[in-house]
Known about the structure:
Blueprint: E1 18-19, H1 32-46, H2 51-68, E2 76-79, H3 82-90, E3 101-105, H4 110-119, E4 125-129, H5 138-143, E5 149-155, H6 168-177, E6 180-184, H7 196-199, E7 203-207, E8 219-223, H8 225-228, H9 268-284, H10 286-306, E9 310-311, E10 324-327, H11 331-340, E11 343-344, E12 346-348, E13 352-355, H12 363-379
Parallel strand pairs: 1-11, 3-4, 3-5, 5-6, 6-7
Antiparallel strand pairs: 2-8, 7-8, 9-10, 10-13, 12-13
Helix pairs in contact: 1-9, 2-9, 3-4, 10-12, 11-12
Amino acid sequence: MPDLLAWRSRFPILAKKTYLINNSLGAMPDSVPAALAEYTDLWASEGVVAWDTWLPEVSAVAGILEDIIAAPRGSMTMCQNVTNALAAVLSCLEYEPPRNRIVCCAGEFPTVEYLLDGERRLGAEVVRIGSDPLVFPTEQFVDAIDHHTLLVLVSHVLFRTAELVDLAPIVERARQFGALVLVDAYQSMGSIPFNVMDLGVDFLVGGSVKWLCGGPGAGYLFVRPDLVDRLEPRLAGWFSHARPFGFEPPPIVYAPGISRFTGGTPNMPAYYQAREGYRIIREVGVSAIREKAIHQTQLLIEGALARGFTVNTPLEPARRGNHVTVDLPHAEQVKDELIRRGFVVDFRPGAGIRIAPHFYNTDDECRAILEEMETIARELPAGG
Length: 384
């Protein structure tokens, strides 16, 4: 494996804490303050004229993501978060029976489930497959796709367990019945190498908070280039118009291509900060990140099992993403004490403690957190 630890100095928190929660909030690059100062300096010195510099950054920042997943230039746009991106896609759909069904699974992130549940008011039939949020029901999920299905929504990596979903049979079945496929790549973008065109999906959404080290407020949307101009999002803002500065009354004349999904005024500060993490991930390379993650997640799994902990992450490397979910008695209390002692992780009810090393973490940090968990578990009084 390439030596990726040379990047540690670029992430200030690593000098102070054992930071192992990169699937929740990636560490901040040291260049973010200067990037935000670049934004604020433009505002301070140029005022409204700063938009001449700010607006091109929307597509420029999206272009870094296009490089990371080999997306065609101009097929991605920035947005605020997955909620906005998914809502924009859903706003393109018409739920006309018999094709009015959305297929999803029990392990989706709450944002997704809330939005889909709201689509019922517009005539959608939402079919939620499976009952165990810790296991993706592949065979049952594929079988649920039929001629009633309008949209299939699936996470590439499940947020609780890091299960890596095999998208190929899902996409193949959807194509067979003419259904659209949307992938939530929040837990795979920057951690799992993939070519989005090879995946064959119609839409891909995600955000910058996690493995991309981009912080909050910057989400993204990919739309298949041969599909985008046929879509007319109801959730449209003035930048969705072909002539936004014409200030024309409705009906809207949609901007060509992905720009029709830009929506309202762009969240420029977030895009400036996110750009810094994106650049690093692109330079490091997701293949190198993944190679190291396979090694370190294996180290964590073996160490957890040796200590008698429960591992709620697939044991096979090809079936898991880049974090490990470890459960033990009083796991939430253990998490709280770990954070007090400088080991930063998080806890998900019904799943356990999530441990997520990134390319800048060391093997010794992975060993140390397991040792600390064992120590804390012994120190807890009987009954917690």
